[in-house]
Amino acid sequence: MEPDTAETATTAPAGPGAQPGPDVANPEEILRGAQDIALSLADRAQALLASLMRPWMAYQLGIALALLVIAILLGRLIAPRFREWLRTRENWPKWRLRVLLLLHRRLTLILFVALIWPAVWIMGDVTWPSRSYLLGIIAQLASAWLAIALATRLITNRFLRILVRYVGWVWVTLSILGLADDAQDLLDSAALDIGEVHLSLWLLFQAMVTLALLFALARFLSRSTSAGIRRNQDISPSMQVLTVKFVQVLLYGLAGYIGLKAIGLDLTGLAVLSGAIGVGLGFGLQKVVSNLVSGVIILLDKSIKPGDVISLGETFGWIDTLGARYTSVVTRDGKEYLIPNEDLITGQVVNWSHTNEYVRLDIYFGTAYGDNPHKVRKLAIDAAQSVDRVLSFKPPVCHIVGFGDSSIDYILRFWISDPSAGLTNIRGNVYLALWDAFHENGISIPFPQREVRLLGNPAPDPDTPPQGGQPS
Q1: Interatomic CA distance for residues 106 and 89, integer angstroms
Q2: Nearest to residue 390, comparing CAs of 363, 353, 367, 351?
Q3: Which of 87, 92, 154, 444 could covalently link to 368 via disulfide, CB atoms 3.0 to 4.6 Å apart?
Q4: Strand residues in 150-225 grouped as ranges (E)
Q5: Nearest to residue 159, comparing CAs of 100, 104, 224, 215?
Q6: Helix segments in 347-419, DSSP class H
Q7: Helix crossing, 107-126 with 94-105: angle to 10°?
Q8: DSSP state of 325
Q9: What span, in angstroms and rounded, lies between the C-alpha atoms of 130 and 310?
Q10: Angle formed at CA 121 by CA 120 and CA 122, multiple of 5 degrees
């Protein structure tokens, strides 16, 4: 009886044309390789320490320590005078003062580098090269540390700056000492193979450093570009915000993509995973995505822009900033409302300064029937024009709107151009001007009056003396 074909295919040895399966990392092999590399590093470190015990190595180390002490003493002597000199240069540009302040903070290291390199050159001329070898290594380390310390000051984020600085110092030290390849092999040996993806500590280190540098560069370019866009008066405020957001997304997206491609990470394998994550985020972050899309629509259609005065429900204020998710509205009492962009798209918004800054306000009042309506209208118009914020080239108007129970009713309409300065205060000022004008011209403002009588008792006869009174 012939064996089953499936079992035969499983147990038969692979022929010359068989395709190899995916590589699976053996933990024992990884551990053994890491141990070999660590032992190699330990042997080299032991050899380096042994070489330091030689007489000329000890002399060079003593010279370096003496130069370091001299640099510290000179730094303490020069630093106070340098600081006082900086205080007298207040009219210099800020960037120049910041550079000089950075040099002041690294003055000791700068002096040490300035002292050790001449010592290396002199030792190289008067003695054999091997007797200045250690001084040369120390000079290279000091120069590299100084360059990294100065360069990382361009990174504004404190945590990222410290991380890049210390990682740079460690890697430069290993490179100068000739241990970079061994350290790279050690980090690369600690890896995890998932299919065709080789994920190691060395790959993570490369990704961290590369992405940090690219994101720092993208942040610098974004700030520079944003400052230039905001200074351009030909671009409207809403288009400025939209352009700045587009530039930021573009720069950070390019930084992430270039960083991942630079370290050799294959992004095609993440297409399906990113699609599934995108669908999940679409359902879970529906409101957030809606606010983001609403923010883009607001910026494109220019319905509201920074500086506009709006009313949304009981909120009245002017727009301070347009964010990707919300809009900041500052009210007259100093409160700042963060209104989701979706509410500005789906709700009813009153924009007091959409097409122009002119706003018309109406106030109502009434006078007695005995007062001349023509005179009342003229006094009301003159009173409104006497208020500072009322526009004169768009003159106020006053109309009769009805005959009430006890007064003739009027409406006074006037225009202002600064609604962000408040609406209630300007109405109050116009009412005060009306009161003063009516008081000076004898115009009365009627108010309801009621006469109350108690039923059941006859009205007293005025010719009948009150009871209990004395007879005449």
Answers
A1: 20
A2: 363
A3: 444
A4: 191-194, 197-200
A5: 215
A6: 373-385
A7: 60
A8: S
A9: 78
A10: 95
Region of 101 (left: φ > 0; alpha: ψ -120 to 50; beta: rest) is: alpha
Question: What's the CA gap between 451 and 457, in Å, rounded?
Answer: 16
What backbone phi and psi angles, to 5 degrees, belong to 110?
Answer: -65, -45
CA angle 47, 50, 54 (to 5 degrees): 135
pTM beyond 0.90: the answer is no
Strands 350-351 and 336-340: unpaired
- H-only helix segments in 361-423: 373-385
For residue 265, pLDDT beyond 80? no
Chain Cα centroid distance, residue 448: 59
Give the C-alpha distances (Å, rounded to integers) separating 110 from 126, 137, 330.
25, 16, 50
Phi, psi of 120 (to 5 degrees): -65, -45
Provide the token pair at 403: 């005959």
Cα separation, 25 vs 344, whole angstroms: 56
Kindly report, residue by residue over 441-469, the tens digit of the pLDDT. 988 888 777 777 777 666 556 565 555 44
DSSP of 240-268: HHHHHHHHHHHHHHHHHHHHHHHTT---G
Residue 33, Cβ neighbours under 10 Å: how many? 17
Q: Read off the amino acid at residue 417.
A: S
Compute the distance between CA of residue 262 and CA of residue 333 in angstroms, rounded to an integer.
52
Q: Which two tokens stand for residue 95?
A: 């960037």
